[in-house]
Amino acid sequence: MHDLRDIRQNPQAFDAAMARRNLAPQSPEILALDEKRRAAQTELQNILTQRNEKSKLIGQMKAKGENADILMAEVAAAKDKMVELEALDREIGEQLNDLLSSLPNILASDVPNGKSEEENVEIRKVGTPAKRNAKALDHVAIGELLGMMDFDTAAKLSGSRFVLMHSGLARLERALAQFFLDTHTQEHGYTEVSVPLMVNSATMYGTGQLPKFKDDQFQTTRGDWLIPTSEVPLTNIVADSIVDETTLPRRYTAFTPCFRQEAGAAGKDTKGMIRQHQFYKVEMVSITKPEESEAEHERMTKCAETILTKLGLPFRTIMLCTGDTGFGSRKTYDIEVWLPGQDRYREISSCSNCGDFQARRMKARTKPAGSKDTVFVHTLNGSGVAVGRALVAVLENYWDDAKQAVIIPDVLRPYMNGATEIKA
């Protein structure tokens, strides 16, 4: 959501910010609606003042025994006009809100210009992709060799973009999630939260999933929404509240299933576990003072990188360009893990600073020390990391063709009852 007062004061700057998002100037339509609404509000206030004056005069005339029928008719007509203007005010207000809600966040000044992911900028690269085997296998082939990954049965049960795993792979998935949670809570200072998996429309609106991304969500028959990520409930913990500044930053983490229609992914990653309707993720969310969100963004990204470093997985961190940065983000770092089976890096974590964009939608504020006024908090979110994609990365990077086994990374062995490898 955007500040209408800022747009009034500097429409050129707002249009320039939207141009970086490859959007046409938006301020003319916004300001036209704003002017129309303010005119209706002014007229409404004038009529209210006149009606009150006439009502007072009617009382005086009746006290004197004078006929006040004409004034009474004027007051009645004024009431009808007020009802009409109030309806117009609401209608224009809804139009304004819909328009402002449909526009993406203003990008940070250091976000590189670019039209697509091809123009994202690499910040750093950690680890060197190793050639453990003569021929790299993808996770689907490895899962089939182990006999523990079953897409056909999942399709019978639920359709495409689902997987059924058992035995060692099912346990490895659970081990990864537990390792992520323990690292973030014990080393990175996040508070673990168990959140609802269904939320209402107001909650989805608060973090920007609605109305723009409605088609990518799953909705229940009673109107609730299955969460696409635990960012949604975690961030909305502070919705409609004034957060005590002394409690900031607040850092939350949660392990949940995530549900997505993947409406815009037709034909993309249809094979395997990379893009599914249901997947697991450990999420990180931070609520901060405005002046601290940039530093928190760097910290959060490091927390996600630490996970991959501990797993011994090669990765790179990139800053998304203007054409690839998400709707609600002002700046995003993507962390991409090396997948030998695809011979490329693939996203495993996306850490975004949303500034006050979500806070305005959620009405989440804080009061700085010594100030009479409140300010909007800043919100950040990041995958810490996607469990399914981490599983894919471990399978492909730790498959040993000679042993016909997946070597379990050292940090996961305590969660695997001391096992060192997974074999058929």
Strand order of the largest sheet: 1-11-12-13-16-10-9-4
Largest sheet: 8 strands, mixed
Average pLDDT, to the nearest integer?
96
How many domains? The number is: 2
The name of the CATH superfamily of the largest domain reads Bira Bifunctional Protein, Domain 2
Helix content: 25-40%
Radius of gyration: 27 Å
Derived from helix and strand composition plus strand pairing, the structural class reads alpha+beta
- What would you call the shape? elongated
**CATH arch. level architecture of the largest domain:** 2-Layer Sandwich
Number of helices: 12
Question: How would you describe this protein?
Answer:
This protein has helices at residues 4-9, 11-19, 27-63, 69-101, 139-146, 151-158, 167-186, 201-206, 231-235, 293-311, 357-362, 387-398; strands spanning 121-126, 149-150, 164-165, 191-192, 198-199, 218-219, 225-226, 241-243, 250-259, 278-288, 315-319, 331-339, 344-353, 364-366, 375-376, 378-386, 399-400, 405-407, 421-423. The protein is α+β, with helices and mostly antiparallel strands and 424 residues long. Strands 1-11-12-13-16-10-9-4 form an eight-stranded mixed β-sheet. Helix 3 packs antiparallel against helix 4 (69-101) and helix 7 (167-186) crosses helix 12. The longest helix is centred in the first third of the chain and has 37 residues, at 27-63. The protein starts with a helix and ends with a strand.
